[in-house]
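Q: Start with the shorter request: fold the first protein.
A: Done. Sequence, then structure:
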Amino acid sequence: MISASDVQPGMSALSSDGAELGAVCSADADGFQVARGGFFYEDYPARYADVREVRGGALVLSHDAEWFHARALLDLPSALGHPHGE
């Protein structure tokens, strides 16, 4: 199982269907945030249990891209807070 020490800021995150979700921008004991975008950010909160494998330095998550997009649209709160200081 993946733990907090296995996830580092800057690691790429892929959905189970191979879509690039972005990069890990923050992590703590409860989970991590994946962010994509330059001017407008799209954030995806994730738990370590959401990681299916680490492949070539990238996290492959256990849900498809649609699941993460829907979760971001719902603006579900993250245990980590907002990583961009807003």
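Q: Next, the second protein, separately.
A: Sequence, then structure:
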Amino acid sequence: MMDSFRNFGQSWLAKVVMILIALSFVLWGMSGYLLSGDSGPTPIATVNGQKITEAVYQNRLKEAQARYTHIFGAAAAAKMAQQPSFGSDVLNGLIDNLLLGGEAAHLDLQVPDAVIAKKIEANPDFQEKGTFSKAKYLKLLAANGMTPTQFEGMLRESLRLEQLQVIPQVVANASNQSATEVWGWSQEFRDIRTVDVADAHFVAQAQPSSAAVSSYYQAHQHQFALPAQVRVQYIILGPENFAKKNSAATSVTQSGVVQPDAQAENAFQGQVENFKDRLFSSADGLTSVAKAYHLKVQESGVLTEGQVTDDGPFANVKAVDLAFSKAVLANKNSSALTLPHGNLLAVHLIHYQPGSVQPLNTVQKSITATLTTQKAAQLAEAKAKNLLAVSRKDGKLQSLTDHGLYPLQTHLDVTRRNPQGLPQNLLSAAFDASAPTHNVPSMGMVRTANGYTLFVVTRVTAPSAAAINPKVTAEIRASLEEQRGRLLSTAYLQNLRNHAKVKINQVKLAAGEH
């Protein structure tokens, strides 16, 4: 399948069709084809006052999946459409189309019909024996699920917006010198020596005093707070409590869930206010209310303030808040809470454990460990800076080892592509350092996972510019221009969005993705 896709991708038509595939990087569009001045009363987004309706959004979703299906097959397309970002990518593509279309209109960019016709007639994919064939043109469009109007609209918009990319392409120009510098940068070898000053070396000196631990505890008590906890009784009332057993008033779904009919729902709704009144007036907690509606009184287990449970009614944050409401903590029945599925929940307190701060003796070890870690890192940094200053002053590598206390490690012929185990931040710092001059090495230090590493660049071997293959130079230059062009085009589009009034209805977007 991928071979056929690659072959398809070689044609100029495919490149236009694939515009719809790259939804999150759209630089061309069909805003004139998909959108109108009046997009309807319920927009999923607006761009400078222009509406993108749910109908347009859903249409683009279907088109996108259809294109994926055409290229990759139905199974792969369905999997792509299930990705969480699929819907937002589609919408962002529509927004980008409108922004770019508006900018092109503002600049009065035009593509005459004659240019469109010439472009189509000159395309070899639409020719027979070197001459444009309308029959082949129509056949190829139909095979890709497009009408001439749709394709020509895409082509016109593509050519019009292509004009917006001229400046980024010119600015992105790269010289042979730049390409040579990049090649030399990638081929450079360096000899690097390192010294590790580990935090662990200073743990014994970093032990905090009792006064320091106590002071930290007093200043950070919020870190040691324990949230309040409750256990409650609860009852749930819903339409199913009004459905008669073994009657036609209920139905059972494939998953075995009983579905009350409209009669049971109406009976439930008719009792909502009575249920609330009984909760308010009951003197025995939930007992009499449960008895009146033949409900089972259940217990929650321990609930922690602000934390939902994995399942059950208290997997809902509002239900947890209800259990900690003022009425419940005052030993009264709660108000009735409507759960997501429409049932009513009511709770009554069994036990309340107020929030508290853990005593110092309970958290003393963790505070000691925290302060020790912080102090050891500070001592390691101070030691590393001192060793680096001394070594830079006297120019002796042995000064970095503090008379052999910290071993000196040697890494020969290190390259950016072969770091020989050096961490990335150390590698970057060592290659950013200047080359040794007059036998004076370059030195520096970086923070690593376990402490600080001092490094010394003792030798730099750069390749000769004459050694580079001209073909390689051209490839690097083209790559540089492509990368720069992408960055500039992205920045241009981002600037348009920053200065535009874009509003997205997140609720409709979320609903439209399901």
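Q: Describe the second briefly.
A: The chain has a mean pLDDT of 81. Residues 360-394 form the longest helix (35 residues).
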